[in-house]
Amino acid sequence: MGHHNIKTLKVASFNLLNLIQPNTKFYGKRFYTQEEYEKKKTWISLQLTKMDADIVGFQELFDETSLREIVEQHPLYKGADIVMGARKGGSPAVAIVSRYPIRSYTVYSDFPEQLEVDGLVVPFTEFSRPILKAEVELPSGLPLTVFVAHLKSKRPLIPDSVVDRHDPLEISKGEARSLLLRASEANALRTILMESLRERDHPVITLGDLNDTHTSVTTQIISGQAPPRFWSMEQKKKLWDILLYHVKDIQARQSSQDVYYTHIHNGHYESLDHIMVSQELVKENPNRVGRVVYVRTFNDHIVDQTFANNKINCWESDHAQVVATIELEDRDYNHYKNKQ
């Protein structure tokens, strides 16, 4: 039986901004009316149509039913696989939707290990929002590992016992706590990624709302740092094997302007939503199985609230969607099946 080869694969990240059933409270008192909920579903559906991605990693999903309602009614996702990660406490979860079969998936709630600083253990032990890893099989037989992440935001972590939550010192302490947690999460994600990256030759894609820019320390912890020029080829190869490459950088090298931003906060245009690929999808790699050819951010709906008259509609997301188009080599990858 002949199989059709896909030449392009489109992978996306989509922060839904609190998708939850109507009349259900989240974060204390907030909820959607039936009308707002219908608008939200319609808006998400429209964005999915524009994006037309094969695999979408979602963040900020409170219940699977809501996502299923959208995906199962969407003409582009007939029969798509849907997997939701785990929720922790009152927080939302991540999820993945794929047109290609998800063969297995793993949810990571706990850190593989805790960091130590001068013999003291950093107190964080688990992700604020559990990580989801999905093993997808592409039509050519090529296996693809996709990680979906949503790291701790910069929003200050202030204990409930604090009376004045507007106290500038309490806010700065809270921001420091958030950064420490995000750094610990980034390191834990890196440790988990190493298992999938090291000495494997199938592509790994990590995507999601990492809540910091692509040059920030926490994001670089996840991707790894490129080897210095003076290292030996052997040392470099070992590092290339475990690096992740930001599609933002790949796109910047190919295009004359950089308009990659996915979020606006206090007038700052930031990119918080990222897609990173392993060396198997980088064009400089002679053994690649594909390469990123195009990256697009869907950010027309994002408003700069420093112009006070712009109110965000509660059914829209405050994040852009990011879509990376990957051109795959036209090869038969059935030999992977024998390996696994």
Report what the structure shows:
With 340 residues, the chain is α+β, with helices and mostly antiparallel strands. The chain is 26% helix and 29% strand. It has 7 helices and 16 strands. It has helices at residues 34-51, 64-72, 168-197, 217-223, 233-242, 247-254, 335-339, and strands at 8-19, 55-61, 81-84, 93-98, 102-110, 116-117, 120-121, 126-137, 143-150, 204-209, 245-246, 263-265, 268-270, 273-277, 290-298, 321-328. The strands form 4 sheets. The chain has a 6-stranded mixed β-sheet. Strands 5-8-9-10-14-11 form a 6-stranded mixed β-sheet. A two-stranded antiparallel sheet has the order 6-7. β3 and β4 (93-98) form a beta hairpin. The longest helix has 30 residues, at 168-197. The chain is globular, with a radius of gyration of 20 Å.
Radius of gyration: 20 Å
State the distance separating the first and last CA atoms.
22 Å
* Strand element count: 16
Average of per-residue pLDDT values: 88
Taking pLDDT < 50 over at least 5 consecutive residues as the criterion, the unreliable ranges are none
* Main sheet: strands, sense, barrel: 6 strands, mixed
With strands numbered from the N-terminus, the spatial order across the biggest sheet is 3-4-2-1-16-15
SSE topology sketch:
Blueprint: E1 8-19, H1 34-51, E2 55-61, H2 64-72, E3 81-84, E4 93-98, E5 102-110, E6 116-117, E7 120-121, E8 126-137, E9 143-150, H3 168-197, E10 204-209, H4 217-223, H5 233-242, E11 245-246, H6 247-254, E12 263-265, E13 268-270, E14 273-277, E15 290-298, E16 321-328, H7 335-339
Parallel strand pairs: 1-2, 9-10
Antiparallel strand pairs: 1-16, 2-4, 3-4, 5-8, 6-7, 8-9, 10-14, 11-14, 12-13, 15-16
